[in-house]
Design brief:
Blueprint (H helix, E strand, L loop, with lengths): L1 E12 L2 E11 L3 E5 L6 H8 L7 E6 L12 E4 L11 H11 L5 H10 L13 H12 L6 E5 L7 H14 L6 E5 L3 H7 L2 E6 L2 E7 H7 E6 L1 H5 L6 E7 L2 E7 L10 E2 L2 H12 L1
Parallel strand pairs: 3-7, 3-8, 5-6, 6-7
Antiparallel strand pairs: 1-2, 1-4, 8-9, 10-12, 10-13, 11-12
Helix pairs in contact: 3-4
């Protein structure tokens, strides 16, 4: 069963349109949603969560359209955590136990300990990073099959981010579990994700397996003469300085046995955007 199916998804605002987005997330996979501020990442996630209505298009999560029971199978962390400001972690746990049929109190308490979340401090009094950790603990504590995370590692220090990445990877060891995560911290997504979705100005410019992207593109670094010797290489983007040439190229188009370096996901996205703008 597919975790997410999006077809022709469109949402129009003054000055911005999420334009005819379509992609499918297979079950058991992690998809990283990448894009600059204003690319449409949060709009896409809010549409998935039925927080806003699309102008056109269809969404299916875990094989179903939105219904009241679906919330039990989905864990959500938005870029602005929405837990009750006046409650502490203990009280929030009691509220969530009533809200979710699959609530796991022992998992909740274990995550609060692992994330060092104070049990008696009001949510409004927590730091932004601790609020995010508490929200993550809530999303992971009711036996969800799909996690939808919007900037879930934002505000976390590197040590805690590393632990969160490990927890998310543990989550998807179960083949029925899937994750859609957006983040500005592309290094986290490179470590986590099976698929990468690039959004730019409301358009989906790439949806591909991460390993396939790495196999398709490489980085050339050398002199202008060495670059010319590549022949008819298909160049995604080229930068020339007095010190030489750096270019992202399609590997299969390169002749002459030129050595290419691996391309990082962030570097590839930046080069694609530069070429489009």
């Amino acid at each position: 069963m597919n975790a997410i199916e999006i077809s022709g998804l469109t949402k129009k605002y003054p000055g911005f349109t999420l334009d005819n987005i379509s992609f499918t997330v297979p079950g058991g996979c992690i998809v990283g949603l990448i894009g600059e501020n204003g690319a449409g990442k949060s709009t896409t996630i809010r549409l998935l969560m039925d927080l806003i209505r699309p102008d056109s298009g269809q969404i299916r999560l875990l094989g179903r359209t939105a219904d009241a029971a679906l919330k039990n199978d989905i864990g959500v962390v938005l870029d602005e955590p929405g837990l009750p400001a006046y409650l502490n972690a203990k009280q929030i746990g009691r509220v969530l136990a009533d809200a979710y049929t699959g609530w796991d109190r022992s998992a909740w308490e274990d995550l609060l300990r692992r994330f060092a979340v104070p049990a008696d401090k009001k949510f409004s009094e927590l730091s932004n990073g601790t609020k995010m950790k508490l929200s993550l603990a809530a999303a992971l504590s009711h036996n969800a099959k799909l996690l939808i995370l919007d900037e879930a590692t934002n505000g976390l220090d590197p040590v805690v981010r590393d632990e969160v990445v490990d927890i998310l990877m543990e989550f998807t060891r179960d083949e029925e579990h899937s994750i859609l995560i957006s983040s500005h911290i592309v290094s986290d997504l490179e470590r986590l994700c099976d698929y990468i979705a690039f959004l730019h100005k409301g358009k989906l410019i790439v949806f591909e397996e991460k390993d396939a992207l790495a196999a398709e593109y490489g980085v050339f670094r050398g002199t202008e003469e060495e670059f010319a010797a590549l022949g008819g290489a298909e160049v995604l983007h080229k930068t020339q300085t007095p010190y030489g040439v750096t270019a992202v190229v399609r590997r299969e188009s390169v002749s002459g046995g030129a050595e290419l370096s691996p391309v990082g996901i962030e570097e590839l996205f930046v080069m694609m955007v530069k070429e489009m703008d």
